[in-house]
Amino acid sequence: MTETVFDTENTMIQLVMVLKLTELRCDQLPSLQYENLEDYLRQYLWKREVPSQLNQAVDAVLSVTANDIVRFMATKSVINSRHETLSDYADLIRRN
Known about the structure:
With about 100 residues, the protein is mainly α. Helices cover about 60% and strands about 0% of the residues.
């Protein structure tokens, strides 16, 4: 079964995504990457309901908040960490 997702290669959508990314970076998330926003849109927001028109996609991008992105990334991190062990985080753990 193939998943239907909105085409993020559309130049109009890319422009809106860059504008939204700039806004989010200036306001609250200075280290946010384009890929983070794209992942949120493709893997969460548009996974549920794919916009059928360009204006719906633009509205969806412009309505994304910093909290939406943070929640998505936190959830994704928890899900991804299920397949890792504590030794995978050895570089993060300080030894006294």
